[in-house]
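Reading a protein record of the kind used here takes little practice once its layout is understood. An example of such a record is reproduced below.
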Amino acid sequence: MLVLTRRLKESIMIGDDIEISILSIEGDQVKLGISAPKNVDIHRKEIYLSIQQENSSATQTESSAIEILSNFFKKQ
């Protein structure tokens, strides 16, 4: 992990087209601004993990469902 120190109104560049700026600091909260191309998805980590979990759940098929479909097509 790379650790960088930035002050208010300073930025970090990732590659040529992603910029992360420090917009404000209030107590223990830091407000970030992220400029990136529209094709780059940006999510808070908890939202990203939730999306990954939902995607994983959606791809898992119960074996009973597969058996039911298999039997359905065998009858036809």
